Amino acid sequence: MFWGTRRTDGVKVGKTTTAFPPLAADYDTFVDGGKNSPGGAVYTGDHPYYIGRPDLPKSYGYVGGQGSAGRVAGCTANPTDTPAAATLHQEAYFETAFVCLNYQGAGKDKIMDSFQWGFVDRGKTFKPSPYLTATDIVKHSTPTDKFLETLKSDYSGYSLVT
Fold this sequence. Notes:
Layout: E1 2-4, E2 16-19, E3 26-30, E4 70-73, E5 76-79, E6 91-100, E7 109-120, E8 125-126, E9 138-140, H1 145-154, E10 160-161
Parallel strand pairs: 7-10
Antiparallel strand pairs: 1-3, 1-6, 2-3, 4-5, 6-7, 7-8, 7-9
């Protein structure tokens, strides 16, 4: 997920804007690498995944030409990201989730963990969220409410277990 203050050139990114009370700022928001992402979707259909998995069933709609933000081998995920667009925002925040597809064969995906990270000062200073001043990535065993809100906004038909 991405949440960021309006770009410094005034361009709105994503489909929706969300508030982070009691902060005064509204943030543009979208599923990073999703259908409302400025760079376009890595997958077609109603699957908001980012790390490319060409070995998934065709129904997942992987778009190989979009590339990948890391790799997955067996049960090990190695995500990478260099969000150059962070330099276009005074604040740019991300929440990255690890998802188990078709959890226990039940037909729904399960978010295993999520991680918050981001930057202020147009990408110069690390800050994991509008609310936190931690100096490192923040891990959650379940996604934040803002994560789920953004996911539902961009992918209303996507069903998962948290």
